[in-house]
Specification:
Layout: H1 3-12, H2 17-25, E1 46-49, E2 52-54, H3 57-67, H4 72-90, H5 92-96, H6 100-108, E3 114-119, H7 125-136, E4 141-147, H8 150-159, E5 166-170, E6 183-188, E7 203-213, E8 216-223, E9 226-233
Parallel strand pairs: 3-4, 3-6, 4-5, 6-7
Antiparallel strand pairs: 1-2, 7-8, 8-9
Amino acid sequence: MNKQQLLELLKAEGFSDDILNAFENVRREDFISEELKKYAYENEPLPIGEGATISQPYTIAFMLELLELDRIKLLTNNKNISSFQNKMRDNESKIWKSNLQEELGEQEQGDNKIKVLEIGSGSGYVLALINELFALQKIDADIYGVEINKELVQKSKLILREFKNIEIINSDGKIGLKEHSPFDRILVSAAFDEMPTWLFGQLNDNGILVVPVKNSIFQIKKINGEIFKKEFEGFVFVGMR
């Protein structure tokens, strides 16, 4: 299967145009070894060494769809408006000297940036896809990857070195990345044996966690402090190490 055939397959499965464009723009062959490049666009997982794999494209697309990254722009606007309203309360004189658009522009460069975490970032391929999805929407985001294997961290850092907004950390992803939390989206790319409820606390309100548990993928939404779950069965993942 070549790239165009893979894109046609994903299109037939009903994935969004943004996801299709991200898969078209990010070269999967850059994230695998030379001898496997001829299989780069097969719809199957491929080994990347150290007992890890680069996941099946369909599975990646499915998980990215569950992350609802196409709704991030709305989340960004809501954050900015909320921050603006707080400024109105805290400093009326400043508000009289500026307008809403100026304030929103300032906030987009401030502390209200979208933050995304991938646990088990492996080759870095999914990090690149997430980054491309934000680029397509013209949204600045801080993207973090956590990978326990030092060699995979070094390789993925090299491949993604031009993207200054992507930080890959050599750490045990099972515990998340509390020092950079809360996150607007968390994606887990290896399977837990049980639901990692401790990650709920690292989600922003209105945040989404997508996580494999055994042979199911769960979409977890945090809305007004409450947790809502959806389960999708029938998947196979490398286990969380």
